[in-house]
Amino acid sequence: MKKSLLPLALLSLSFFAQAEEGYYFGAGYNISASENSGDKTGLSASFGHTFPLGSTFAASSEWLYTDLGKHGGYDISSIAWNLKPTLPLSDTMHVAGVFGTNYFFQESEKDKDNKFGISYGAELGLRLTQHIQVNTGYKIFNAKSQVSSMYAEFQLRF
Hints:
mainly beta
């Protein structure tokens, strides 16, 4: 009985949270891995706009640069346009899906293999103040090899 009430309680919380419109800059740190290599670290930078979808839901449209490190002999980075549908869980917390179209820069000592691809994942965000938010999430990139990445991001919202 108690287990079935938890999803209902979370849904009821989301109806009281208001989606807010605004722009943001972000800087992040990611740890990525692929079948061909161990864990690699990199940095990311983003700029986006959040807009409400009705009174409860929101979506963000963002540009994101990500350095994924060296995988399968290739240094991989990407520029992506992401769409992030967001469900507020409370006034300070949200959960979001992340869907992106990417241009991957893939270079090795022997050649370049730049191409378009996709990425997808999910994130959990916490607003610390009116202008500061932190997010953590998991994404999968379909690049030269499939790369998965866990990330933490700091955002300045205005």
